[in-house]
Amino acid sequence: MQSHAWLSVRARALSDGRRRSFVEKIHSHQALVMRTTTEAASAWAAPWDLQGAAAVRLVAGAAGPVGGDNWRWDIDVGPEAALLLGAAGGTLVLPGPRGEASSSTVNVRVAGGGTLIWEPGVQIAAAGCRHQGFIHVMLEPGARLYLRDDVVLGRHGESPGDYRQRLRITMGGRALYDQTLAVGGAATGWAGAAVMGGYRTLGSRVLIDPGQELIRRRGPFADDAIPQTAVMPLGEQGVVISGVDLTLVDLSHKLDRAFVRCLEPQPAAATSARPYLVGHRGAQLV
Q1: Which of 165, 191, 215, 251 allows an S-S link to 133, with CB 3.0 to 4.6 Å?
Q2: Mean per-residue pLDDT over the chain, rounded
Q3: Among candidates 203, 198, 194, 128, which has minimal Cα distance to 165?
Q4: Structure confidence at residue 239 (pLDDT)
């Protein structure tokens, strides 16, 4: 199945001086079906003042992606516009009847002053799948981003198929974050201690906040109560939080706790510049 959908959001000034974002274009196609909603931003995003944000959710129009499918999704957030983008459920990546690979490409552009909060739902790499995914988020100077990414390695009691996904985030054409994840039998060493070490879920939270309205901790930090979790700065623009765990529920709790820590003021006593080692006994200074 070949699916190509696109979405664009623009901002409009109201008579009282406020701004409201609206969906300018929305084109669903085949498996990629979008629906507008009336959701509001989460409380943590209050400093971004997103009361007039547009809200859209992706609804599964078909199973998959299944081997042989090629999906493309283009998203454009205009100047000063705000978009809350979510999914009605997770995505189950499945093998195809003829052993073909599947692919998905998401191209996102957020203009200056624009904001995107994107929670695409968990990706489940089922046994036997062969999938290549690429997400490219292009931010113009002054754009803001929150991106949540969670992956489950196979359904209950099974090993994952070959799943590979690249996430690239740029600001003004320069790379802020470029990460490739590869799991499954075709990825050498993926189950070793340096990658998964037997854990079944992995995820990340990326927060780009150029105006420093939200993030209070930009350097790496560790918390003994949040093991198998790393917090890394993205220059002066934001942070990325990543971690692994046995279950998606436990992983979400850990990443959410680390995210809240990033929003707290940096303690005056935390002056060490030594790197952190995150392992099975928690985070330790080295």
Answers
A1: 165
A2: 87
A3: 203
A4: 92
